[in-house]
């Protein structure tokens, strides 16, 4: 069964996701993909919060980056993981590294064999068929190198994370909503307490505050 968990902020949702998986998280090996954070400036407290959220939920995790890796490296290093969690940061830089090493094709094949894909923020955005909505000044350099907005395509919808966050308000109202406002875009808005649970071709939005 194909199973994905696409969150806005994994630190707020990890415990709910761990419970929903239905297995002892201590027995699940999780790769914490930090690639998107490699070009982020300033304090990375949010990265630590996300990592700690997964640890507190009970997952046995290790940090990993796909930057500079080959498809063979990834198959060797991640071949035995149960959960691949792609964390947040710069979506366009992340997608560039994904394409360079063939992570997109690898993860699609693994998800189809039962490996769980988990995403947070940028990690949820790149699961979509199109990542154009992630555009901002900090992504321009990597946007040019990508040459297209194609995402991994694990799902047929686009996640807009951090909905309602004061920090992202200007970015959304002045940029992202204008980009997203197209009839062909299937959009799901997520606040930091929500995630989308995907099982095969069905999905639902879960709000952890309702539990």
From TrEMBL:
UniProt keyword annotations, A-Z: Hydrolase, Protease, Serine protease
Keyword Protease: yes
GO annotation, biological process: proteolysis
InterPro entries: Class_I_gatase-like, Peptidase_S51
Family annotation (Pfam families): Peptidase_S51 (PF03575)
Domain of life from the UniProt record: Bacteria
MF (Gene Ontology): serine-type peptidase activity
Presence of the UniProt keyword Phosphoprotein in the record: no
Family, as annotated: Belongs to the peptidase S51 family.
The protein's name in its UniProt record: Peptidase E
